[in-house]
Write a structure and sequence with these properties.
The structure is a single chain. This protein is mainly alpha-helical. The N and C termini lie far apart (about 95 Å). α11 (about 320-330) crosses α13 and α18 crosses α19. Strands 3-4-7 form a 3-stranded antiparallel sheet. Strands 1-2 form a two-stranded parallel ribbon. The protein has 4 domains: about 5-20 and about 125-280, Rossmann fold; about 300-375, no CATH class; about 380-440; about 450-540, Arc Repressor Mutant, subunit A (Orthogonal Bundle), CATH 1.10.10. The protein is elongated and about 105 Å long. The protein has 23 helices and 13 strands. It binds one RNA strand through α6, β6, β7, α8 and β11.
Length: about 550
RNA sequence: GGCCCCAUCUUCUAACGGUUAGGAAAUCGGGUUUUCAUCCCGGCAAUAGGAGUUCGAUUCUCCUUGGGGUCACCA
């Protein structure tokens, strides 16, 4: 291609804008001054909808590796596809990162000197590198229409050859200068494509942080570098190379879907005279298909738990989520967690060699709740109250109002059986609050309908009830009530003559519990009654 | 279809080539708590299949099967 033609292409790409040279740009982004061993990690979500829990997982891993090594953690918004962009997504990303405690050192609205962290604001930089590639013969314009591309693919399918834009199938790779000029004259739109020098028959090697030594075919795809749209933004491939180079990324962690394009990214690095990145590919979190189809990637459509706003609304405590995710990343976390119950989960040191996430781990909400229950049980009372109230304020106004109406009573309610070495573990997420506490608040409780047996049991209980009694005496009283109502106090006796009794003390207590709370599983009855007060107890049982 | 990744209990996983294949979650059973939980103890449960290398294979090699990814002007 003649220089003159290249100049025309450049003029069209830049639309008269003054594009800095690569040297200029690189002088503005000097190498970061960091201690040796410090890692610069990043997570690059695209603002195309809600935030995926996998992004939080990747974010946590990258953030831990960065900050454990006194390095930097960056959040880069990959918004090069303006058509797919969804309004408000960036806010969602920022909120989700804030919610899950992923503090980035560089990111949207937080420039550490290596920004901007919106790719759409870095267009000129990508162009500078793209133009260099054009000059050095590593790029060329392609005027193919989508119809032509589709026809190409059809032919390849018919010929049973490997699909893709490469070699002889690269329509515009070897066009003459005249043909390019003609297309330019006709005003046809074009993309700038990479001119690969690789061969599918040859193999290249690289070391993956997680998967170890890899050997794959060389890239030979002439992928688009710069799109034909009005913004002239780059595709992911170019943006990744340029950004991670300028931002000083030391390790590129990404999900497995990027593995096949790693050969391309290595070739592109070489085309720009750069050292290829240190890549690490991990399997994305998946979920068990409800229709029995087996494991699959967590899908935004079918699985509400893929969306972090589900997690936030449900009110899973952040450190419990951290614990679960850390356990997914490093299986030795569980042992550490048990041995260090007094420490913050973020004191755990994540190790890369154990993060051999080879298979897609299944999201296990039950195991997650096992962690969150424990985390909540360990929470200081003040923090617990604050979280419950905050959740209720947002999601259960009646409960919130009832709680606020009598703070002293509410404090007692929320503190029930949370002290001591073995606190209750009834609450796995803040949205469990209504189920656990609503029954304490009169305005929210429907009077229980009692059958004759229940009525008899309740009145027997009340006859023997002494609100001022201590727990032991209270229990003696309950036993007396049970006996008078026809319940057996002795297990063996009950087992021997089950027909002689209405049931055991367990059954009697169960009736009282149900009448008092409407539930079969609650904290200790005496404690509940002490908190509720005599009037309320008598009202509910009569 | 080509290429690539992956394969241990139901789930998450551990095991320098030598272990009764370990732990955790779930589940089941027992115990403590004269109620509910907590807590403690125990049970059930796996190396996808087939060759090969080796004294010895979950571990290394190959094949088969199965799952996933990719081959877009999406990232």
């Amino acid at each position: 291609m003649k220089d003159e033609t290249k100049q025309r292409i450049i003029a069209l790409l830049t639309e008269g804008r003054d594009i800095s040279t690569r040297a200029d740009i690189e002088s503005r982004y000097p190498k970061r001054q960091l201690a040796s061993g410090a890692e610069v990690m990043r997570v690059p979500p695209s603002p195309t909808g809600f935030v995926h829990i996998g992004t939080i997982y990747a974010g946590l891993v990258n953030e831990r590796i960065a900050h454990q090594s006194d390095g930097m953690f960056l959040l880069r918004i990959e918004d090069t596809d303006k058509k797919r962009e969804v309004e408000g997504s960036v806010n969602g990303i920022k909120e989700a990162f804030a919610h899950f405690g992923l503090d980035y050192d560089g990111g949207p609205d937080k420039d550490d000197g290596y920004g901007p962290y919106y790719q759409s604001q870095r267009g000129d930089m990508y162009l500078a590198y793209a133009l260099e590639l054009l000059h050095t013969g590593w790029a060329y314009p392609c005027f193919a229409t989508s119809d032509e591309l589709a026809e190409n693919a059809k032919k390849q399918q018919a010929a049973k050859v490997r699909p893709g834009y490469y070699g002889q199938w690269a329509l515009w790779r070897d066009k003459s200068d005249e043909e390019v000029v003609a297309a330019l004259d006709a005003g046809r739109s074009f993309v700038l494509r990479f001119r690969s020098r690789g061969s599918h028959d040859k193999r290249i090697q690289f070391d993956d942080v997680f998967k170890g030594h890899m050997e794959v075919p060389e890239n030979d795809l002439d992928v688009p570098l710069i799109k034909s749209d009005e913004w002239r933004l780059p595709t992911y491939h170019l943006a990744h190379i340029v950004d991670d180079y300028l931002m000083g990324t030391t390790k590129v962690f990404r999900s497995d879907e990027w593995l096949p394009s790693t050969a391309l990214h290595i070739e592109m690095s070489q085309a720009l005279g750069l050292q290829p990145f240190n890549y690490g590919h991990f399997a994305p979190i998946s979920i068990l298909d409800k229709n029995g189809g087996g494991k699959r990637k967590l899908s935004k459509r079918k699985d509400p738990e893929a969306d972090v706003s589900f997690w936030i609304k449900a009110g899973y405590p952040v450190s419990g989520v951290h614990a679960y995710l850390l356990g997914l990343a490093n299986s030795n976390f569980e042992d550490w967690y048990r041995a260090n119950s007094d420490k913050s989960v973020l004191d755990f040191r994540l190790s890369l060699d154990k993060l051999a996430a080879s298979r897609a781990p299944l999201l296990d909400m039950t195991k997650l709740e096992n962690y969150t229950k424990d985390v909540i049980a360990r929470l200081p009372q003040g923090a617990f109250n604050k979280e419950i109230l905050a959740w209720a304020d947002l999601h259960d106004k009646p409960l919130f109002d009832a709680m606020m109406a009598d703070p002293e009573y509410t404090n007692k309610v929320l503190a029930i059986e949370r002290d001591g070495d073995n606190p209750r573990k009834d609450v796995a997420k803040w949205s469990d609050a209504p189920e656990q506490f609503t029954y304490f608040f009169d305005p929210l409780v429907e009077p229980a309908q009692k059958n004759d047996d229940e009525k008899a049991a309740c009145s027997a209980f009340l006859e023997n009830y002494d609100h001022a009694a201590d727990k032991d005496t209270w229990f003696e009283n309950m036993k007396a009530a049970a006996e008078s109502a026809g319940y057996c106090l002795d297990r063996k006796e009950l087992k021997a003559n089950p027909d002689k009794y209405r049931g055991g003390i367990v059954d009697f207590a169960g009736i009282i519990r149900l009448a008092l709370t409407g539930k079969t599983r609650t904290p200790d009855l005496w404690s509940i009654m002490q908190i509720m007060g005599e009037d309320r107890v008598r009202a509910r049982l009569s």
